[in-house]
Design a protein that fits this description.
Strands 1-2 form a two-stranded antiparallel sheet. It contains nine helices and two strands, in the order αααααβααβαα. The protein is globular, with a radius of gyration of 17 Å. The chain has one domain: Up-down Bundle (Four Helix Bundle (Hemerythrin (Met), subunit A)). It is mainly alpha-helical. α2 runs parallel beside α4 and α3 packs antiparallel against α4. It comes from Methanococcus voltae.
């Protein structure tokens, strides 16, 4: 037996902020909370390593929080907003949201038992950013573009879900230049303009394909 308060570390509290942000994204139907949750997801690992408090408990807590913030929250945002793009696609919104959550959970479960360098499959925070930024952009430009946006968004959710459970390799620590550009794009996304974030996530996804092909060749 152990008491929760005796094993909680500073990094665990940072992780809990992550899940609270995911909950806020759901309750307030707001993409910005998912974007900020990604920052805290990165911070908890950094804090754990800096304070030498890496633990199995922290890893399990992180996975549970990730399912909510980067699985359930993006899925709910799809369900809550798909009718704005194409009302006839409501049922498909439910189906694709469910597939995305399941793929995210499978991705995290596999990551928890594998001991490999880098990531196998698109990391769930990247999957969440990929889907949320495109859905966010679609809602912003719905008055400009055609009614096919709903189909595009659903397809993106399907692709992101499949990428999370595929065998494509992604770097665990991207180069500093990309990290700087990504950080700026994330900030711009939080401020309400997701297009730079969309471009960053597309480039990261393509980079995974390229890296896997060149590695296998």
């Amino acid at each position: 037996m152990f008491k929760i308060r005796e094993i909680l570390t500073i990094s665990d509290y940072v992780t809990l902020i992550n899940i609270v942000l995911g909950l806020m994204a759901i309750l307030l139907n707001d993409f910005a909370f998912v974007y900020v949750a990604v920052v805290f997801d990165a911070l908890d690992g950094m804090v754990a390593r800096k304070t030498n408090t890496v633990s199995d408990f922290g890893a399990e807590l992180d996975s549970i929080c990730d399912v909510v913030s980067f699985g359930v929250a993006p899925a709910y945002l799809l369900y809550a907003n798909i009718s704005t793009l194409s009302p006839e696609l409501n049922i498909w919104g439910v189906i694709l949201a469910s597939i995305f959550v399941c793929c995210g959970a499978l991705r995290l479960a596999r990551f928890g038992v594998l001991d490999v360098k880098g990531f196998i499959g698109l990391p769930i925070p990247a999957g969440a950013l990929f889907t949320c930024s495109i859905l966010h952009a679609a809602l912003l430009y719905n008055n400009v573009l055609s009614g096919t946006l709903g189909y595009i968004v659903l397809f993106v959710y399907l692709v992101a879900g499949l990428l999370m459970i595929c065998d494509i390799r992604y770097p665990k620590y991207p180069r500093r230049v990309y990290l700087s550009v990504f950080s700026l794009a994330l900030l711009i996304g939080v401020l309400g303009q997701p297009i730079p974030l969309v471009l960053c996530l597309i480039s990261y996804t393509i980079y995974g394909f390229y890296g896997t092909l060149t590695h296998e060749l």
